[in-house]
Design goal:
Number of helices: 22
Helix content: 55-70%
Largest sheet: 2 strands, antiparallel
Strand content: under 5%
């Protein structure tokens, strides 16, 4: 009213009416500019001049942002560089293959080196997965002083070295060097670098799909690793090669081929930024990050527990299956590898089915159903390990029953793991998403290491089945309780950060509100001028609400005048 603000500046009635009739939207400027008080108010600018000035201001503000901004615009689309993304996933497959390809031959290799202990066999298989989460914090610190491409190359060199040490144990060092090589493989895990890349090189709108692909890659990596072991055993038999050292040579060649490919293809992303979407120019700085204790731990903790139990059960199953096929059915290494590979390959297919299943029944129901089904099927494993059923299980029918039960139980567990990781992607706020995904990945790899060691440390297979059954039952109970409390409902939780991601829409909303208020004041001013011209104030029109308390419009008076004036 007093002209102290450009929004409510007085103007001729004709100009105000013309402003109220324009269909041109207000310039997209910062939200605070609509309400910022000004001691020396300037006249209202034209839409073209204001739009140019606002655009120049946004460019200047973009130049002033520091590199530690959380988000950047998606000028290159949802993905920073697709060939680099494929290369990172290929590195993930290579690591999983290096981790799994030795499982069918590890027991025989250890026996050749003079160590026939089942505990040692389980340690050789699982120690890499235990060391992986322990060194992830180290790699995070290395990433702060180097680049992501450098860390991936260091990981590849470490994995190449440990593959050669695995072979060298045959000629020097024995079982000690064999164990050292597997420990070194855990240090060279590419998991930390892979998650970092997904966090900074994939848009927020595509991050769930990217992590879904990562989960599928990991699942099929385990299946392909086991089937690769079968192919290597066949090649060793045909060419009279050493079947125990051939997996080490094979892994070394894979990593040796990866290094030049990485140098040619990989493009370094900005580690301190992330993409929201191609159409978004919103930036979320670190000061907007909510407190960690405000994150939905009621839903995250059950997901982490389910991830650990599933990983432990699957790790123990691989070792137990190899021992059952060799001791009960007297199979060769090639046949055992084929049997385990077929199971893992079919189980990995449930990762692709889970997407359609979630669309039909929902994520939380799928997670609960997977763990409950697995808990109900695990007691069938008592049959092949029981002495009372040795004759029945030695037949072809027993083999088929074990195959079907294994596929169904592990498919249910894999389904639960996929949904648990999906919820870990969706439940946290965008600022903390990578943190919890890295934590979930560390828990998964830890469970993958605990399972084989547990299977090797316990001689009685029935006790192993009992331990896994109790763990799965507890996971099913915990997840069911979380589902009953609606702890997995994440739509409402994302509203706070989502408002920051929808900043463009927020500008439009504020612009529409300002335009409505402007039209109301223009009409009110026109009515006052018309009443004054006719010789008096309008009879039914209330005067504009007065300013109270430091020049602020009273919201109640504004609304009351709006209703009484019929505007």
């Amino acid at each position: 009213q007093d002209g102290s603000s450009p929004l409510f500046a007085r103007a001729p009635a004709a100009a105000m009416a013309e402003t109220s009739r324009t269909d041109e939207p207000l310039p997209r400027v910062a939200v605070t500019e609509f309400w910022a008080p000004s001691a020396n108010a300037a006249p209202l600018e034209t839409s073209a001049d204001a739009g140019t000035a606002a655009k120049k201001q946004r460019v200047d503000e973009d130049d002033e942002w520091e590199r530690d901004a959380w988000s950047i615009d998606g000028s290159d689309g949802h993905y920073h560089h697709l060939p680099s993304l494929r290369l990172v996933m290929w590195a993930q497959i290579l690591y999983i293959v290096s981790l799994v390809v030795i499982i069918p031959t590890a027991a025989g290799y250890a026996a050749e080196l003079g160590n026939t202990s089942a505990v040692y066999f389980g340690t050789v298989v699982g120690v890499s997965s235990i060391i992986n989460p322990l060194v992830s914090r180290l790699w995070n610190r290395v990433l702060r002083v180097t680049s992501l491409g450098t860390v991936l190359q260091i990981n590849a060199l470490i994995n190449l070295t440990c593959s050669l040490l695995y072979v060298l144990a045959r000629y020097a060092g024995g079982d000690v060097l064999l164990l050292v090589s597997r420990c070194l493989l855990g240090v060279g895990s590419v998991q930390t670098a892979s998650l970092k890349y997904l966090g900074c090189a994939v848009s927020t709108k595509k991050v769930k799909f990217a992590h879904f692909l990562t989960t599928a890659v990991i699942s099929y990596g385990f299946a392909f690793g086991t089937l690769t072991a079968l192919g290597l055993s066949l090649a060793a038999t045909y060419f009279s090669w050493d079947q125990y050292t051939l997996p080490g040579y094979f892994s070394a060649w894979l990593w040796l081929a990866y290094l030049p490919m990485h140098r040619m293809v990989f493009r370094e992303p900005d580690l301190h930024a992330s993409i929201i979407g191609p159409e978004s120019k919103v930036r979320l700085n670190r000061e907007m990050r909510p407190l960690r204790r405000q994150e939905p731990f009621r839903g995250l903790i059950p997901c982490f527990f389910a991830i650990f139990v599933v990983a432990m059960t699957k790790g123990a199953f691989e070792v137990t299956t190899i021992e059952i096929t060799r001791n009960l059915w007297k199979w060769s290494i090639m046949t055992s590898a084929l049997y385990l590979g077929v199971i893992m390959f079919v189980v990995a297919a449930t990762t692709l089915v889970s997407y359609r299943l979630v669309q039909r029944i929902g994520e939380s129901r799928t997670l609960v159903g997977g763990l409950v089904i697995a808990t109900l099927l695990l007691p069938f494993y008592y049959i092949p390990v029981s002495l009372n059923f040795q004759d029945e299980m030695s037949s072809a029918v027993g083999m088929a029953v074990y195959l079907m039960v294994s596929i169904l139980a592990l498919s249910a567990l894999n389904l639960g793991r996929t949904i648990a990781f999906s919820l870990t992607t969706e439940l946290p706020t965008p600022h903390w998403r990578n943190y919890f995904l890295c934590l979930g990945s560390e828990i998964f790899t830890l469970g993958r290491g605990v399972g084989p060691i547990l299977a090797g440390a316990i001689d009685d297979k029935q006790r192993i089945i009992s331990a896994l059954l109790i763990a799965c039952a507890l996971a099913a109970i915990v997840v069911s309780a979380a589902h009953a409390r609606s702890a997995f409902d994440h739509e409402g939780h994302e509203l706070g950060p989502a408002r920051a991601e929808q900043g463009d829409d927020l500008h439009d909303d504020v612009a529409s509100v300002v335009q409505s208020v402007d039209e109301w004041l223009a009409a009110l001013y026109s009515a006052e001028v018309g009443g004054a011209a006719s010789g008096g104030a309008p009879s039914k029109m209330k005067s504009a609400p007065s300013r109270e308390g430091g020049g602020r419009l009273d919201a109640k008076q504004l609304g009351r005048s709006h209703k009484q004036g019929g505007l």
